[in-house]
Amino acid sequence: LEAPRQAPALKNLTLEELIAGLQNGLHHEVLEGNVGYLRVDDIPGQEVMSKLRSFLVANVWRKLMGTSALVLDLRHCTGGRISGIPYVISYLHPGNTVLHVDTIYDRPSNTTTEIWTLPEVLGENYSADKDVVVLTSSRTGGVAENIAYILKQMRRAIVVGERTAGGALDLQKLRIGQSDFFLTVPVSRSLGPLGEGSQTWEGSGVLPCVGTPAEQALEKALAILTLRRALPGVIQRLQEALKEYYTLVDRVPALLHHLANMDLSSVVSEEDLVTKLNAGLQAVSEDPRLLVQVVKSKGTSYGPEDEAEEPPEVEPEVPEDEAARLALVDSVFQVSVLPGNVGYLRFDRFADASVIGPL
């Protein structure tokens, strides 16, 4: 095996060289719908971050701050520097206090290091009211996995894509004796983001909130953000419908309060929303008849079973002939007397008054 190539020492690089190296693994733009997109292929360490923080804020972060949601693309990020973790997390951490996000064990020094968010950031934090989606692939590894997992456990981001590699947080190449052979071994590990003890992503990978092939992850993320952008309007229209139509008027205030305080952070599909709404509304109202359903837009195809629309019901004309009238009644109503002298009357729809009257 060849000896590993030595990267030039950072202290020997000029600012322009540092910027050029950073830009090779960084891409940002504002997508349709005012969605910010930031692709990071390598997580720089503290030394680079501290030197280039002003450049990053002025040329990247400020252009993304005005967006309504952010997509952080880590699908091609196979590693990075542990010391860069606080910088990424801090700009997405909405709180005003520092947060302990991980503890790292280093084998060579037999020491542990706590990782906290920064007390303050240059520029602004990304608003807590704005959604963040992290894209992952089976190649996402090391420090990038740790960042995805921390943001997921903080409930700050929706992870979309594939289960990550489940690799090591930090690797080191060691020479075997005086030979030209080298052994790559893990030398650092996460002891559990956010104080979760032994529960880490190493070995198993980070499981996405929404699983999808990596090449489709961005499209899926944008669809999720479109849905989430519509949530406030959906809740408002539901509140208006309850006030206008719900017959158990004494329960309406409690229902409105429930809707106004619902946690919708985990909603990533129409099915999620319907399930959450029905469970909450029925519990508050104690009324199993109160149901929310998804109404498919006219002209939208959802599959072969939905291609043909049912014809509208037409009220039958009341015939003049008495026998024909009796036949009509028999076709609409089923009447019998059950054992125990129990009357049974079945009809499957309400007829118009113009039909019921003459009959």
TrEMBL record:
Domain Tail specific protease per the UniProt entry, residue ranges: 14-213
Q: Does the keyword Acyltransferase apply?
A: no
Q: Which residues form a coiled coil?
A: none
Could you state one GO biological process linked to this protein? Answer: proteolysis
| Pfam families per the UniProt record, alphabetical | Peptidase_S41, Peptidase_S41_N
Cellular component terms per the entry's GO annotation: cone matrix sheath
Provide the GO MF annotations for this entry: retinol binding; serine-type peptidase activity
Keywords carried by this UniProt record: Receptor
The keyword Kinase appears for this protein: no
| Protein name listed in UniProt | Interphotoreceptor retinoid binding protein
Q: Which organism is it from?
A: Hippopotamus amphibius (Hippopotamus)
